[in-house]
Task: structure prediction
Amino acid sequence: MKKSFIALAAALACTGAAYAQSNVQLTGLADMYAGSIKMAGQDRKSVVGSGGMTTSWWGIKGTEDLGSGLKVDFNITAFMRMDTGEYGRFPGDTFFSRDANIGLNGSFGRIGLGRDKAPNFLPTILTNPFGDSFTISPLVLHADTPTAAWGGARLSTPADTGWSNMLVYTTPNFGGLTANVYYQFGEQSAPGDKSKKNVGVNALYFSGPLSLTAFYERDQITNPGAGVVMPTKSDWMLGGSYDFNVVKLYATYGQSKVKDLDRKSKTYSLGLDVPVTGTPGTVKAAVARTKAEWTGADATRTTATLGYDHFLSKRTDVYTALMYDRVSDAAPKTGTSLIAGIRHRF
Result:
């Protein structure tokens, strides 16, 4: 018995040594809010919702050091709706729609395969004070969510903020500059559709208080999941921010075009973050304006948000925000929303 115990202990020790260079973690974020929501062209509703500041998610991430400067990483993460306990961002979303990828890292950069962030995602969330909020960020609402008054059209990125069936290459960091090249295989079998695909590129530059971002993408396949063919759309955006310590300023400008539908739009946004002296909180403000150039008519959408974000700890914060939304050809033309929520990272 004693010999068996010693043998088992030795085996476990060897196993631990074998995996000493590996790291696997359970991680995620829970975000809930309550409030009253009314967008232009829609009725008012009182809600308890999920993802006021950040879409709630959970998952597993890991890395292994292969030696000789090589590492492998994997990301398997899923969105969730905390208010109902359902998976995904919306009905019909795939389970692991946030991440489902594996990559190889080295001095050459990173090569990844699977479902990952689309070219538009990081440049959009890094250049507005409300980050990746699909509830109150004016820029994200204009770029990545349907505008009901315009038939549910997404102004910039109809192919989603994440792409499936993708190959992505990330360059090494060159003095604060990195770039990503994206190729989503369309995987279509119908005649005439076999060559359909999504392609894109983005660039991110960080140097002290200055950050600059840019992206371009051409979309022919919808997401998430296997995807289907859609009218070809191209879109691009330039953005940046500068932190003056007493205030951080943000600005973006972008354009979108659907060639087959003769549909164009232009979007710009401005924002700021102001730290509140003596508190771990910031006042946030942002505005986005889109001019939609449809055939025979032009319309505009303007959205502005004022909010306050207060950190209770490094991982937990509470927030509140007031939002105004106006679409020139909607009925009614305007809507206002007020929410308050809590966000926790784990």
User: Anything to note?
Assistant: The chain has one domain: 31-345. The chain is about 10% helix and 55% strand. Residues 31-345 form a domain with the Porin fold (CATH 2.40.160.10). Confidence is low (pLDDT under 50) at residues 1-20.
